[in-house]
User: What shape does this take?
Amino acid sequence: MKYVNLNNTDVEVSKICLGTMTWGCQNSEKEAHAQMDMARDYGVNFFDTAEMYAIPPEPETCGRTEEIIGSWFSKTGRRDEVFLASKVVGPGLDWVRGGDYKIDRENIIEALEGSLRRLQTDHIDLYQLHWPNRGSYHFGRLWDYDPASGEKDRIEDNFIEVLMTLQELIDAGKIRHVGLSNETAWGVMKYLQLSEKHDLPKMVTIQNEYSLLCRIFEPDLAEISLRENIGLLAWSPLAAGLLSGKYADGKIPAGTRWSLREGSNHRDTPRAHAAVGAYHRVAKKHNLNPVQMALAFVTSRPFTTATIIGATDLKQLKTNMESIDIDLSPDVINEIEEVRKQYPIPY
Assistant: This one.
């Protein structure tokens, strides 16, 4: 495993972060415990979860993933081996805290207490805002996101309230570091500006979608990441499994995430499938596993702090973690960039 200091801290985390959102839906508690055991055996010390998991989100599974992680901590006594990240959700889910909520002082405190209880721990190492109160252009909303949503002054007042609340929780020892997720360039810079102005906690990471098929993090957020030292935690680095090739030719294997979806799937487009085929040809030409090539690319980016991998079985998990040993040659990188030019935003 390879390690890096978490941005603006002296904490060492693995470049591979174990994603957990399938636990409690696609994976049983026993299977999840086996994944955590294997991840630690491979040197992964960074786990990421959220109060709303398992995914797909449903009222009956909300919080189940955190409960499963908590039961592993209780059974193994290995809490101190893990840098643990979780998140407070933004507005939009009817079954979370009564449905009428936003990210503010009252809701952060309530959400954190629930997460600590389910996780059976007294602190969370990295506490993240899952998505902004004003919405996000992720989750298939890129084409209709409204960047003018909300009044600027009220948004900034809320940001200050959030930062002050996070400072209280850091002072109380309940969280150690703070981060963003599914945030925009403006949102990131505004949080950084306000934290400096008011001497409040600095966001150290931003967890946004990033993969060969989704590179909207570049160039603006990438520049912010590098110049302001706020690292990317890349979620969905395989585009929800699309880059594995398992959905080629219209296939939707039983038990996969796509088989659990209802309604439209924003990633299921002709251009996306064509792009996957092109990337697979690059991998084949250079004798690379296409999954490992895709993950290695994300991990190799200078703005990436960690790549969040997920798996539904141990074989997948092993393959994903072993991507850390893949170094992509300049020829591979150049050919990846050529494919990107053909399919810049395929979904």
The domain at 3-243+298-326 is CATH 3.20.20.100 (TIM Barrel).
